């Protein structure tokens, strides 16, 4: 098996639903620009910065490759394929119903930022969603809580600077009770929480878009 298949990020992307443990062993910091066209939300430009340990094998495989080199394209395609296999690790809701995504991103890439790997991609909504007078919520998370995926600050998810609509974006970070925290922290890599528990969702930040 090739080394790239063994790297931490690909392990979490391909195996988390079956084998991954709970309390976070990998960390991804997210920034997200909401994409609008003709008054409708069309997608989200995601930027995932992986922690140094998770990044290590990816960057090893990239070696000294320059941006745009074929090795970066190959690594990006492998990582992105697994992200797609987990529906972008994202749930998007409107009026109590899930909003569907396109099966493929409109753009994606992988790059180096110091000792960290950075995945960027545009997540397109299957159907553009009108903003005026509407409220949407979404979360990006690993269902098993093996990987912590989060925004460091509220401003890390926002509309682009040219957006003129009357919308407010807020990020809610949950505070699970002590029992839930203790349970998550008790699980090791060999343990997997029950699927119906939705452990990762208990810790997932919820972003709300409220428009006038």
UniProtKB/TrEMBL annotation:
The UniProt entry, under InterPro entries, shows: DUF1007 (IPR010412), UCP008159_ABC (IPR016537)
Keywords linked to the UniProt accession:
Signal
Q: Where is the signal peptide?
A: 1-22
Which domain of life does the UniProt lineage start with? Bacteria
Quote the Pfam families the UniProt record gives: DUF1007 (PF06226)
What's the name of the protein?
DUF1007 family protein
Q: Which organism is it from?
A: Kluyvera ascorbata
């Amino acid at each position: 098996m090739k080394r790239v298949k063994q790297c931490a990020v690909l392990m979490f992307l391909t195996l988390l639903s079956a084998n991954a443990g709970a309390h976070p062993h990998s960390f991804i910091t997210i920034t997200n620009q909401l994409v609008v066209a003709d008054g409708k939300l069309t997608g989200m430009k995601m930027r995932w910065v992986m922690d140094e340990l998770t990044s290590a094998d990816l960057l090893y495989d990239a070696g000294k490759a320059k941006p745009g080199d074929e090795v970066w394209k190959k690594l990006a395609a492998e990582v992105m394929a697994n992200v797609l296999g987990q529906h972008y690790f994202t749930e998007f809701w409107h009026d109590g119903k899930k909003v569907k995504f396109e099966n493929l991103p409109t753009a994606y890439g992988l790059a180096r930022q110091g000792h960290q790997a950075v995945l960027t991609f545009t997540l397109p909504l299957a159907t553009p969603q009108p903003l005026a007078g509407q409220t949407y919520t979404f979360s990006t998370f690993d269902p098993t809580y093996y990987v912590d995926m989060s925004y460091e600050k509220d401003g890390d998810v926002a509309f682009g600077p040219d957006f003129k609509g009357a919308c407010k974006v807020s990020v809610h970070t949950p505070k699970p009770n002590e029992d839930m925290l203790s349970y998550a922290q008790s699980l090791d890599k060999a343990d997997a929480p029950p699927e119906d528990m939705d452990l990762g969702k208990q810790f997932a930040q919820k972003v709300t878009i409220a428009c006038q």
